[in-house]
Amino acid sequence: MKVIRVVAMALTVGMGMGSAAMADGFKDCTKLDKASWKPASEAEAKAKALGYEVRRSKIEGSCYEVYGVKEGKLYELFYSPEDLSLKHTIAK
């Protein structure tokens, strides 16, 4: 029974670490302090202008992460809150 418990715990820990490793990790868009950031709504507007149907957005590290759908596929778009430049895109 101890062996089964140890294996089960190892698998649980391994799966948790795998989830963290699978995260995209893109979090560095600006060094500017948050008080100087442009509004997140402007990042959403830029995504809409590119043809994405915006589902939601959030702050990820020092980036605005915008979730959008285009041609039936989900995307994560990472914008710099400093100048709203598109830094990275991930198709899901």
Number of strands: 4
Q: Give the oligomeric state.
A: single chain
Q: What series of H and E elements makes up the topology? A: HHEEEE
What is the CATH top level name of the domain at 37-91? Alpha Beta
Please, how many helices?
2
Biggest beta-sheet profile: 4 strands, antiparallel
> Strand sequence of the main sheet, in spatial order?
1-2-3-4
User: What is the molecular shape?
Assistant: globular
Could you say which structural class the secondary elements and strand pairing correspond to?
A: alpha+beta
Question: Can you offer a commentary on this structure?
Answer:
There is one protein chain. With 92 residues, this protein is α+β, with helices and mostly antiparallel strands. It has a domain at 37-91: Nuclear Transport Factor 2, Chain: A, CATH 3.10.450. The chain contains 2 helices and 4 strands, in the order H-H-E-E-E-E. It has helices spanning 2-22, 40-49; strands spanning 53-60, 63-70, 73-79, 86-91. A 4-stranded antiparallel β-sheet has the order 1-2-3-4, covered by helices on one side. A hairpin with a 6-residue loop joins strand 3 (73-79) and strand 4 (86-91). The radius of gyration is 18 Å and the shape is globular. The relative contact order is 0.19. Residues 8-85 form the PepSY domain.
